């Protein structure tokens, strides 16, 4: 004897009826519209499934030579170190900015006590902004290590290896140059700049040479003219602070004039612009740090998983690799 619910199995699972009746009507004939819809769906499904199995994958990590892996790990470690040094400088500059914010807060009042506090805060800013970050000073050693590793190992009898080595060389040249610019900007020393000579065999060599010449000349010119930083925002704030200090040093004798208020307003705008710029730079360096960190992790973990896939391959499909 059958149970009552067995009489309508579809309705028990779909309380509002069988939804598949909409796309699968009674009868074996299918309209041209439904047939086209089905074919389009199956084509998309086949394409997605095909993408999971890639033939002749270019430069798979599993095919990397051990010496290439060692070179990349050594290079990326130095890059992570220099990113950490730059991040520490962003933190130092942000801390200095707190003194500016506190000074601007005190300028909102008119009492001599608040002006004394403002003067003290600006004095603190001057003291800390001109101090040196020891981690930035050590960047020269890291840059020397990166410079020393520009000559990559030869990839004999390996077309893929040659492509990999040339790509790594291009990335390293760009990384070394950008890092040297940051180091020079943060330290106020043109000695941190490096001059890289790229062979003409690389199609990007002329563009790089022009960029390097333009930026290096600008930085050296600014620092040789007595500027303590190539960061324009810092120079602007430094000039405003020097203008404000004599006006508010006396505290009780400070006279609030329209000129003084305009100067304070300029300081507020300059501080805001500097804060925004530092935030953008910090996010950029942090993003680059994460990319390098993830690439190191992928490089260390991918060979094992790739070999496992290879071992599981069967017959003519042995040259296929799963892409997850």
Features of the shown structure:
mainly alpha, 10 helices, two-stranded antiparallel ribbon, extended, 324 residues
Task: Describe what you observe in this structure.
68% of the residues lie in helices and 2% in strands. By secondary structure, it is an all-alpha fold. The chain has one domain. The protein has a two-stranded antiparallel sheet. Helix 3 packs parallel to helix 7, helix 4 (112-129) packs antiparallel against helix 9 and helix 6 packs antiparallel against helix 7. The radius of gyration is 32 Å and the shape is extended. Mean pLDDT is 76; it is low at 1-24 and 304-324. One of its GO terms (cellular component) is membrane. It is a single-pass membrane protein. It is found in: Membrane.
Show the helix and strand layout:
Layout lengths: L8 H5 L18 H20 L1 E3 L10 H41 L5 H18 L4 H4 L1 H10 L10 H29 L17 H20 L7 H17 L9 H55 L7 E3 L2
Antiparallel strand pairs: 1-2
Helix pairs in contact: 3-4, 3-6, 3-7, 3-10, 4-9, 6-7, 7-8, 9-10
Mean pLDDT: 76
Q: Tally of extended strands?
A: 2
Radius of gyration: 32 Å
Strand content: under 5%
Terminal CA distance = 51 Å
Number of domains: 1
Helix content: 55-70%
Pfam families: ROH1-like (PF05633)
Membrane topology: Single-pass membrane protein
Subcellular location: Membrane
Keywords: Membrane, Transmembrane, Transmembrane helix
């Amino acid at each position: 004897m059958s149970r009552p619910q067995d009489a309508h199995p579809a309705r028990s699972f779909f309380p509002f009826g069988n939804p598949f009746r909409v796309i699968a009507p009674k009868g074996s004939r299918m309209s041209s519209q439904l047939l086209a819809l089905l074919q389009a769906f199956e084509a998309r499904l086949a394409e997605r499934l095909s993408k999971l199995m890639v033939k002749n994958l270019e430069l798979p990590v599993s095919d990397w030579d051990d010496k290439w892996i060692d070179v990349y790990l050594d290079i990326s470690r130095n890059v992570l170190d220099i990113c950490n040094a730059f991040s520490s400088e962003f933190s130092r500059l942000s801390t200095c900015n707190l003194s500016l914010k506190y000074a601007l807060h005190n300028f909102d009042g008119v009492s001599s006590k608040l002006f004394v506090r403002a003067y003290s805060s600006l004095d603190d800013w001057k003291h800390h902004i001109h101090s040196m970050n020891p981690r930035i000073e050590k960047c020269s050693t890291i840059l020397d290590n990166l410079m020393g590793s520009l000559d990559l190992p030869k990839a004999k009898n390996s077309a893929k290896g040659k492509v990999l080595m040339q790509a790594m060389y291009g990335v390293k040249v760009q990384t070394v140059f950008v890092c040297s610019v940051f180091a020079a900007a943060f330290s106020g020393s043109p000695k941190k700049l490096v001059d890289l000579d790229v062979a003409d065999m690389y199609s990007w060599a002329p563009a790089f040479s022009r960029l390097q010449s333009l930026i290096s000349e600008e930085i050296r010119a600014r620092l040789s003219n007595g500027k303590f930083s190539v960061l324009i925002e810092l120079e602007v704030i430094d000039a405003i602070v020097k203008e404000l200090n004599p006006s508010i040093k006396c505290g009780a004798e400070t006279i609030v004039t329209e000129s003084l208020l305009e100067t304070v307003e300029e300081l507020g705008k300059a501080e805001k612009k500097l804060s925004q710029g530092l935030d953008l730079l910090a996010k950029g360096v942090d993003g680059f740090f994460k990319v390098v960190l993830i690439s190191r992790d992928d490089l260390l973990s991918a060979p094992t998983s790739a070999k496992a896939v290879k071992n599981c391959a069967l017959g003519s499909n042995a040259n296929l690799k799963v892409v997850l």
